[in-house]
Specification:
The protein is mainly α. The chain is built from 10 helices and 2 strands. Helices cover 64% and strands 3% of the residues. The relative contact order is 0.13.
């Protein structure tokens, strides 16, 4: 990438990814280029495909849940072309690492709304909870326990009692009780891994 092109990119991302300053944006672009250069897949010229992104989420943030990582990929991939370009990477990380509560509520809701219809349905909750809970080798039918959890979640979060969570339901519930932000699976980095990532990226990359 030419110096001029990099500068243009840094300027525009400095505005759109508003939680990063320009030198941080530049570090994230360099990291993106380094990760893409390591990969030998066909998307490499453009950005991350699903597997590369999943590897990055796993190595940088310790994420292990394939279903959630896939949803995070789709949430970052704004133009739905199955590839995360440098703009989507920096803008996505802006919310992922430093988003306001409002931005994180929006992001988590998008991750959990599996079919993109604007609601988190009973089925979607069931799928995500089933997927994120450890499989217990017990005698009981685990599905029953998960159904109970879904009922509890709806009782607590479904303010308009229509049997599914709208964005307004989800937002109100999380504002009342912040711990509900990741109620259906871990889709944000914990503070330790996000600090480690920032330190590594913003301090080491500057030395390059």
């Amino acid at each position: 990438m030419s110096r001029k092109r990099l500068q243009q990119l840094v300027d525009s991302l400095g505005r759109s990814a508003r939680h990063f300053n320009k030198s941080e944006v530049e570090c994230l672009i360099k990291l993106f280029d380094t990760l893409v250069a390591k990969s030998s897949n066909r998307f490499a010229a453009v950005g991350f495909d699903r597997n590369m992104f999943r590897d990055t989420l796993h190595s940088a943030f310790g994420m292990t849940d394939d279903m959630i990582m896939d949803r995070v990929f789709r949430t970052f991939d704004r133009d739905n072309d199955s590839c995360i370009n440098v703009v989507e990477w920096v803008e996505g990380l802006s919310v992922f690492l430093r988003g306001t509560l409002e931005e994180k509520i929006k992001y988590c809701f998008e991750v959990y709304d599996l079919n993109g219809d604007g609601y988190i349905s009973r089925e979607e909750m069931f799928q995500m909870l089933k997927n994120s809970l450890l499989k217990q080798p017990s005698e009981e039918d685990p599905d029953e326990g998960i159904k109970d959890l879904v009922d509890i979640a709806l009782k607590k979060m479904d303010y308009d009692h229509d049997g599914k969570l709208s964005f307004m339901d989800f937002e109100k519930a999380v504002r009342d009780e912040n711990l509900l932000l990741e109620a259906f699976g871990p889709c944000l980095p914990d503070i330790k891994s996000s600090m480690a990532f920032e330190q590594k990226t913003f301090q080491e990359t500057r030395k390059l």
